[in-house]
Amino acid sequence: MKNFSRRLKQVVWGNESNDKFKKTRYKRIWVSSVLITVIVSISPLLIMTVVNYIQYQRTLKDEIMYPMHRFVSTTKHALEYSLEERKNALIYIVEDKTVEELSDEVRLNTVIKHLDNSFKHYVDLALIDNNGEVLSYVGPYSKKLIGVNYADEKWFNEVQINGVYISDVFLGFRQKPHFVIAVRHVSYKGVPYVLRATINMDILTGQIPQFEKDDSTDAFIINTQGILQTNTRFGKRVLEKSPVPVPERVLTTRVVKMDSPDSGEYILSYAYIVNTPFIFIITRRSPDLMRNWLNLRNWLIGFLLGSIVVIVALTMAISSVLVTRIREADERQDKALHKIEYSSKMASIGRLAAGVAHEINNPLAIINEKAGLMQDLIAGADDFVHKEKFSTLLDSIINSVERCSAITHRLLGFAKHFDVSTQTIDLVLLIKEVLGFLEKEASFRNIQIQTFFQDDLPSIKSDKGQLQQVFLNLLNNSLEAVERGGRVGILVEQREEDSITIVVSDNGPGISENDLDHIFEPFYTTKNKGTGLGLSITYGIIKKLKGKIEVESDKERGTSFTLTLPITAQH
Fold it and tell me: What is the set of domains in the chain, with CATH numbers?
């Protein structure tokens, strides 16, 4: 990750330089470009994701709660209809039959058969007097129930008060769960009595909807005291305590969220069965209800995060490319301006050097001419006493003139290098000419310059003036790097068949590892006084001449520049 960050900084902001403003500028452009693009791209995506999230949540909740509401409402109406139907059947019987007819067990048996054939779920019928004693009974428990007195039973007291009563489920004398429907009637003789029917529990359990085995939905009936009137799907039996609290009494079907310490959050849908003690309930655990929603939510979040990653990555990549192009364009512009500035400066120096050389050559020519004339005069004067001494002095003058002439010719050679031309060059002679300019400085600072030239080196085809500039820059740097008494070495040899290798080395303090990556950049310098253009121009010239330049440095051994120049000029 660190390497990636470092590489990204180098690509986008460029290498470290002394110009901190430029680095900060490119960084600011890159950061602004990434942030603006990412915000503009991601904002609509975030808004749409949030909107979809809310809409899907509402829709799924509706889809979850509506079926439960529908199940409960449908079952409620079915139970109410069934119970009301059977209650009305009993009311019809007591109004249609006399007490004497109902007291006859044969006729009573006929009545229950007709009831069971028409409406089903009737278990037995019992005629009970106003004191609670069973007068007649037809059903499977005739031996147990004849003569039984119900005066103390809750349901009997309720029917005496209200005239009609539907009980909740209880055990009674049968010791089996059942519930009864009882109606009170006063005969034409003014004698009150009660007709009670026991209803099969199937009328309750048969109305409860069935669910898949892996479904967490449960459906059951409780009474207003929170006692189960039917079994649950998950182990609770009839007449046990309800697994849910008794809900608030309302006239309509309701769906609410509930929380239980045992089962956690769940959805409760319920409805009170009118004129009965029954409450029909459906429960469903929220995790199962929300499984589809959670899957959809996870998909939305995953899609959002994936989209953000892709957008950010693409934005960073595109911004990097754009900022890199801006930086490279700025660098090319800077290099072009620096090159123009340097070329103009060198042209001025060249013109100055040419003018100086011409101005010096004229006096030198006169001196040389006069010295030659004096030699001729002394040679013709046989009686001149100091002839030998003056001849020696004149020879010294002529040699000095020749030396000055050689220096001015070298200056003229440097002045002409701006016109690029390819010619045959002897590298050894070229390097010796450059050393001629530097030998006085090296001697003054007691710096030893060692040269190692391979014998029989071939000449190369290249630009003499530009190579002079290259070697002058490298040797100047080496002389500035070493201290008094140091050493500078020059090696020229042919390592490859088609190229010549030149190594310029010194035993100076070397270059740090961080600086090595930047020494060929324009205006990058480690000197207190320097333009930072010498090695940049050297690098550009070598590349232009189709050569290579490499640098190695060690703080203990110094620095070496290795140049590889093609023997044949390449275009």
Answer: 97-204 (3.30.450.20), 208-289 (3.30.450.20), 421-571 (3.30.565.10)
